[in-house]
Amino acid sequence: MITLKGEYIYLRALEPEDLEFIHTIENDESVWEISNTITPYSKYLIKQYLENAHKDIFEVKQLRLVISNYNDVALGMIDLFDFDFKNSRAGVGILVKELNDRSKGYGKEALKLLVNYSFSHLNLHQLYCNISEENEASIKLFSNQGFKKIGLKKDWILSNGIYKNELVFQLINN
């Protein structure tokens, strides 16, 4: 049985009520480096995005889910992006919004649920992620879920006038 429910969290579809939550995340300059964002998003644009969030992953090539606890508090988001049906792969991105909610296992449980869903329900062959070489928490998270480091992109990310390396991790469904 496929489930997006874990012991402490569950993954759910985006809802119109998530407007403020997503607006806050998308406009948090401290995470722009990992999301490749360079300008703020308006509530209007995010509202339009939410109105189309019901579309199928095969159509929009993305699946964004909210990480929620069982008190229905949104903790973060996890995404499949660049969904490639032909080659059976997708990228993975994850963010737990509040610093005090990090390192509590929510990201680990969310990633495990998404990996299982991707391989069993979407029949993907592989998942990948791109992580700044300095992001030790994400490197640990993905490594502990079986992702293997397969490459290094030198000077890939320009952040505050400094070029940073980015690592590529991959998980193949055997």
UniProtKB/TrEMBL annotation:
<dbReference type="GO" id="GO:0016746">
    <property type="term" value="F:acyltransferase activity"/>
</dbReference>
<protein>
    <submittedName>
        <fullName>GNAT family N-acetyltransferase</fullName>
        <ecNumber>2.3.-.-</ecNumber>
    </submittedName>
</protein>
<dbReference type="InterPro" id="IPR016181">
    <property type="entry name" value="Acyl_CoA_acyltransferase"/>
</dbReference>
<dbReference type="Pfam" id="PF13302">
    <property type="entry name" value="Acetyltransf_3"/>
</dbReference>
<dbReference type="InterPro" id="IPR000182">
    <property type="entry name" value="GNAT_dom"/>
</dbReference>
<keyword id="KW-0808">Transferase</keyword>
<feature type="domain" description="N-acetyltransferase">
    <location>
        <begin position="9"/>
        <end position="168"/>
    </location>
</feature>
<keyword id="KW-0012">Acyltransferase</keyword>
